[in-house]
Amino acid sequence: MRTLIAPGRRRAGYTITLVITTIVLTVVFVVPLLWVVVSAMKTAVELARVPPTIVPETWTPGTYAEAWDLMDLGRYFVNTIVVAVGVWAVQLAVDVPAAYALSRLKPVLGKGILGMMLLTLMMPAAVLLVPTYLTIADLGLLNNPLALWLLGAANAFTVFLLKRFFDQLPVEVLEAARIDGAGQLTMLWRIVLPLSRPILAVVSIFAVVAAWKDFIWPLLVFSDPARQTLSVALQRFAPDTPVNLLLAGLVLSSVPMIGLFLVFQRHVLAGLTAGSVKG
Q1: Main-chain dihedrals φ then ψ at residue 127, nearest 5 degrees
Q2: Other CB atoms within 10 Å distance of the CB of residue 4
Q3: Side-chain half-sphere of 36: how many Cα atoms within 13 Å?
Q4: What are the 10-residue block averages of pLDDT along the chain, 279 residues in total?
Q5: What is the dihedral sign for C-alpha 249, 255, 258, 264?
Q6: Which fold would CATH assign to domain 64-273?
């Protein structure tokens, strides 16, 4: 039975819809970013003008260097990098073995443990702030990056993603390694991890981005201004800093994460789709 729409028209309609959707999404996501980048190069007076100017009357790209020096952003970049790298390393060190155990070792209560871990994703983060803060304070870890590293160690979503990927790995390869005398740690290190590069890239980017943009927990933990991260420091400078300099600081703080995604976007897409189709 023939369809009412000819194949050529369906193809044209699909192309038009795809183009329109791409343009709309590009405008929605890119225009605000460009607006902030350009607005940071306006003077504070021009930035406060109503209605706003689209293109700066006087371009002042030196705003970025001025913001870097005024707010001492170099110090806070280092603090944030230390936090993000530590969260990433500790999270992988804990979550990869946990996901491998749930996927391949098949513990007796494995499904129940995974279910309880996923249940924590349904809990509002604010509910856990007070008990977590009191625990960290009792351990004497305030103003210490360990407070953020330990909090990001056990991530239920990361464990779930890794387990789903490990479930799709070919059993034949692991069985052959077991016959050759390889233990579980050897198989994890020499076989599973090399095959899991796509999903490891995904969870790594998720971990780094989450640690980089986190605000509430670093605000509670780092009372010492010299140890604060970028997100907390920019909020602290906001009341006494000209708006154009503050926007420049926000742009500078976003550049590493945007660059990270642009460099590893193929790995992210490959990791999210890997293992989705079996056979």
Answers
A1: -65, -30
A2: 5
A3: 14
A4: 52 85 88 90 86 86 93 95 95 94 87 87 85 92 93 89 91 85 86 90 91 93 93 93 92 91 76 53
A5: negative
A6: MetI-like fold (1.10.3720)
DSSP assigned state of 101: I
Q: Which two tokens stand for residue 79?
A: 């603090």
Phi first, then psi: give them for residue 193, nearest 5 degrees: -65, -45
How many angstroms separate the CA atoms of 41 and 255, rounded? Answer: 16
How far is the C-alpha of 165 from the C-alpha of 218, rounded, in Å? 31
| Amino acid (1-letter code) at residue 22 | T
Q: What is the pTM of this model?
A: 0.85
**How many residues are there in the chain?**
279
Domain residue limits, the chain: 7-39, 64-273
Element (H, E) at 31: helix 7-39
Task: Judge residue 258's burial from the number of C-beta atoms within 10 Å of its C-beta, 0-12 exposed, 13-18 middle, 19 or more buried.
Answer: exposed
